C-alpha cells in the first residue's frame, strides 16, 4: 500500500511539472510560435560531413534582438568542427593533438554565434551575417531566417554512424528559450533555381525551441498606463510592476559616464520610476466621434544605453476587428483563432521609427489609430475602451488593476456625444425655442 501511495505521489509530481512547463511556454496569442532549427547534411567528407544549419523564427511577434543568438550543444562522440561559413565558434578549445590541419573548434560543447554584417563574401552563405538578429515571422518573414554551414569531423560518414548532438541550447538577449532533443526527420527537398530539378539532403534532423516568459524573467519587463478624455485621472503603471530589484542602481538623469558593467537586457541601468520598468506603454482614449473613436499609443524607453530595434507591440482589444486607420505605425491583425479577430500587432516604419532610442528626450515613439464603432458592443463603461493585454517584444506587460481604469463620470451617459455634435444640437435648440 505504501509503495502504491509513493508511486501515485511521483506520478502526480511528474504530471504537475509537465503541465506547469507547458503552461509556461504556451502563448495563447501565438499558440504555434517557435524557433525551428534544421540540420541538413549536404555531403560526406573523409571523416565526417558538411551540413547547413537553418534557424527559422516562426514566432509572430517575438524576435531576437542585438547582440543576437548563441547556439550551443554537446557532441555525442569526439567530433570536431573543421570549418564554418556564416558563423563561428566562440572558443577554439584544446586542439593540441592535431598535427597539420587545425580544426576551427575542438570543444566538446561548442558555442556558435552569427557573423557580423560586412564580412568578406567567402565567409558568407545565404541568410547569414546579421549579427544574430532575427526578425519575427509576423513582422518580416524574409528576415526571420538565419543560416550557417558547418564541416564536422570524427563523426562517422553514413546515416548509421552519425550521432545527433545533445543538450541543444539557444541563448538570446533576455533568455527564455528551451530546446527539444534533436529528432531525425525526412530529408529536406531542394529545388534548382529554374525549378526543373529536385535534390535532397543526405540526412536531416530538427530541433524545436519554445519561449517561456517564466523562464526568461521572474518579473515583467514592461507595464501599461492609461488615460482618457472623459476622466482627468491618469492610471499609472502599478508600483514596482517590474520588480524593484534595480531600485538601488537607477538614475534620475542620463549618466555622464557609462558604468564598468556593460548594461544588457538582463542587467539594465534604468531611469528611476515608481514602476521600475524598462518599457512603458501608454494607452490614451483621445476622442469619441459619432461613428468612430480615436486612441493614442505611446511607448517610452526608460533603459539607458540600450536601444530597441525592430520592436513589436501587440494589443488585444475587442474593437481591433474594426480598425479604420493607423498613423505612424505599421498595423497587422493577428488571428490565432478563426472565430476571434481581437488581436493586432504594431511595429515601426523602417528608417522612421523602427528604433526606440535609449532613455531620454528621443526615447519614445507614438501613434494614433481610428476605430469604427460597433453599435452592439461599443461602450465607454467599465474600462471597455482599454486593452485586455499588451505585449512588447513578445513579453506580456503588467496591466493596472481593473478597478483603477479611468471611469466615466457617474452622471455621464454610456456613449458620450462629441463636442461638435453637442454644439450643433445646442444651436438647433436656440433656433427653435428662441
Automatic annotation (TrEMBL):
Domain COBRA C-terminal: 221-257, 264-406
GO biological process: cellulose microfibril organization; plant-type cell wall cellulose biosynthetic process
UniProt membrane topology term: Lipid-anchor; GPI-anchor
Pfam families in the record: COB_C, COBRA
Main localisation: membrane
Coiled coil: none
GO cellular-component term (any): plasma membrane
Superkingdom of the organism of origin: Eukaryota
Keywords carried by this UniProt record: Glycoprotein, GPI-anchor, Lipoprotein, Membrane, Signal
Signal keyword on record: yes
Signal peptide interval: 1-25
Location of the protein in the cell: Cell membrane
Similarity field: Belongs to the COBRA family.
UniProt name for this protein: COBRA-like protein
Organism annotation: Rhodamnia argentea
Taxon lineage: Eukaryota, Viridiplantae, Streptophyta, Embryophyta, Tracheophyta
Gene: LOC115743344
Amino acid at each position: 500500500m505504501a509503495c502504491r501511495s509513493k508511486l501515485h505521489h511521483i506520478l502526480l509530481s511528474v504530471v504537475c511539472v509537465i503541465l506547469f512547463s507547458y503552461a509556461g511556454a504556451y502563448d495563447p496569442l501565438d499558440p504555434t510560435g517557435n524557433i525551428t532549427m534544421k540540420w541538413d547534411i549536404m555531403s560526406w567528407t573523409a571523416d565526417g560531413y558538411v551540413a547547413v544549419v537553418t534557424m527559422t523564427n516562426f514566432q509572430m511577434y517575438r524576435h531576437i534582438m542585438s547582440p543576437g543568438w548563441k547556439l550551443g550543444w554537446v557532441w555525442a562522440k569526439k567530433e570536431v568542427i573543421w570549418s564554418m561559413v556564416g558563423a563561428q565558434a566562440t572558443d577554439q578549445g584544446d586542439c593540441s593533438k592535431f598535427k597539420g590541419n587545425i580544426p576551427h573548434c575542438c570543444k566538446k560543447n561548442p558555442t556558435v554565434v552569427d557573423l557580423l554584417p560586412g564580412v568578406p563574401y567567402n565567409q558568407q552563405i545565404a541568410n547569414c551575417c546579421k549579427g544574430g538578429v532575427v526578425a519575427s515571422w509576423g513582422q518580416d518573414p524574409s528576415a526571420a531566417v538565419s543560416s550557417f554551414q558547418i564541416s564536422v569531423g570524427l563523426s562517422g560518414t553514413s546515416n548509421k554512424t552519425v550521432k545527433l548532438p545533445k543538450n541543444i541550447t539557444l541563448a538570446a538577449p533576455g533568455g527564455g528559450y528551451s530546446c527539444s532533443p534533436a529528432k531525425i526527420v525526412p530529408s529536406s527537398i531542394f529545388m534548382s533555381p529554374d525549378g526543373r530539378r529536385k535534390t535532397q539532403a543526405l540526412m536531416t534532423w530538427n530541433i524545436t525551441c519554445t519561449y517561456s516568459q517564466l523562464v526568461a524573467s521572474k518579473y515583467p519587463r514592461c507595464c501599461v498606463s492609461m488615460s482618457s478624455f472623459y476622466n482627468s485621472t491618469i492610471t499609472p503603471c502599478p508600483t514596482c510592476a517590474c520588480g524593484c530589484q534595480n531600485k538601488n542602481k537607477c538614475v534620475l538623469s542620463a549618466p555622464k559616464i557609462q558604468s564598468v558593467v556593460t548594461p544588457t537586457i538582463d542587467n539594465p541601468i534604468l531611469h528611476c520610476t515608481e514602476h521600475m520598468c524598462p518599457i512603458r506603454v501608454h494607452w490614451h482614449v483621445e476622442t469619441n466621434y459619432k461613428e468612430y473613436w480615436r486612441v493614442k499609443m505611446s511607448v517610452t524607453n526608460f533603459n539607458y544605453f540600450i536601444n530597441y530595434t525592430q520592436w513589436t507591440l501587440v494589443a488585444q482589444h475587442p474593437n481591433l476587428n474594426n480598425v479604420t486607420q493607423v498613423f505612424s505605425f505599421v498595423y497587422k491583425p493577428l488571428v490565432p483563432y478563426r472565430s476571434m479577430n481581437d488581436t493586432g500587432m504594431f511595429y515601426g516604419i523602417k528608417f522612421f521609427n523602427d528604433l526606440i532610442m535609449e532613455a531620454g528626450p528621443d526615447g519614445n515613439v507614438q501613434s494614433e489609430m481610428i476605430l469604427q464603432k460597433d453599435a452592439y458592443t461599443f461602450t465607454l463603461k467599465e474600462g471597455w475602451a482599454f486593452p485586455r493585454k499588451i505585449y512588447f517584444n513578445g513579453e506580456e506587460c503588467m496591466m493596472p488593476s481593473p478597478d483603477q481604469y479611468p471611469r466615466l463620470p457617474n452622471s455621464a451617459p454610456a456613449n458620450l456625444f462629441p463636442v461638435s455634435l453637442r454644439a450643433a444640437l445646442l444651436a438647433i435648440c436656440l433656433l427653435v425655442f428662441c
